[in-house]
Design goal:
49% of the residues lie in helices and 12% in strands. The chain has 273 residues and is of the alpha/beta class. It has one domain: Rossmann fold (3-Layer(aba) Sandwich). The structure holds magnesium ion. Magnesium ion binds next to loops. Keywords: Signal.
Length: 273
């Protein structure tokens, strides 16, 4: 009887040890087998169907117009020409069909899939974007497009924007990703010849280098420190589907997580009570 108890205890200790080892070795380990983009269903639906998404976009561009008018009132137009720097995806055009397609086909983001979607030139304008940039053009303010679309996407990206009626679609005003996804070098290049008065984006790295490659806590802290710039110099558009908040934030800059690990990370980072 005693030896039976002993062996049971031994088994228990061994089992607990294995569990602890497993947990220590990989805190995010999960065997869950779920569709890889299932978690983004609600975000894509919100962007495609909610009036609130459209209202937030209009709010952003109404504010941008208000600020532009204020800047033009104060500016005597001496010195460098005035310019606005803008991101493209989820700032000016809506790529939610690509995100819906990933859910439909149960595929993660891929460069090939993204390029394939871009070639269709079917992205629609974000509410208020076209009107605002045309207004800026009418006031003699240039628009520079700084996007992390790949350089090979140059032709179809310009064609998509041109079809929608966006201004300044030419070589000089278009700076896609050549070497790095960091946008500071390209912002500096624009600033050399122009006075940048406003930046538009859906991702914090669209505004300043200080946001590049930062953790969730750092990103949130910097936003607090720069809070006066939002709605004045930095105009932010809503994007619940993807961004550095997810890749650098939630997934801590690693692109090697398995879908099951990502699922565990998302669940582990929910703030409940
Ligand atoms: Mg974007």
């Amino acid at each position: 009887m005693q030896s039976k108890y002993y062996y049971l205890m031994l088994l228990f200790v061994l089992f607990s040890g294995c569990q602890a080892l497993k947990t220590n070795a990989d805190p995010y380990r999960s065997e869950a087998n779920i569709p890889v983009r299932e978690h983004s269903v609600q975000a894509v639906l919100w962007q495609q169907h909610s009036g609130e998404y459209k209202a937030l976009c209009h709010q952003a561009f109404n504010l941008a117009k208000f600020q532009l008018d204020e800047i033009l009132l104060r500016n005597n137009r001496e010195g460098k020409p005035l310019a606005i720097i803008t991101d493209i995806d989820e700032t000016l055009i809506n790529n939610s069909p690509y995100n819906a397609k990933m859910i439909e086909t149960d595929e993660e983001y891929s460069k090939e899939g993204w390029i394939k979607w871009g070639l269709l030139e079917q992205a629609t304008a974000v509410p208020g974007a076209l009107e605002f940039l045309k207004y800026a053009e009418s006031k003699g303010v240039q628009v520079f497009y700084i996007s992390n679309r790949y350089a090979v996407q140059d032709k179809e990206t310009k064609a998509n924007l041109e079809k929608l009626g966006f201004p300044f679609i030419d070589e000089q005003h278009f700076l896609l990703r050549e070497k790095t996804s960091g946008k500071e070098e390209r912002r500096q290049a624009v600033s050399k010849e122009n006075k940048v008065i406003m930046l538009l984006g859906d991702n914090l790295s669209d505004f300043a280098e200080v946001f590049d490659d930062k953790s969730t806590n750092e990103r949130n802290e910097i936003v607090e420190n720069l809070k006066d710039k939002f709605g004045t110099e930095f105009i932010v558009l809503p994007n619940p589907m993807y961004g550095d908040w997810e890749t650098d934030g939630l997934y801590e800059g690693s692109y090697n997580w398995t879908p099951a690990q990502k699922d565990s990370i998302r669940k582990a980072k929910l703030i409940s009570y």
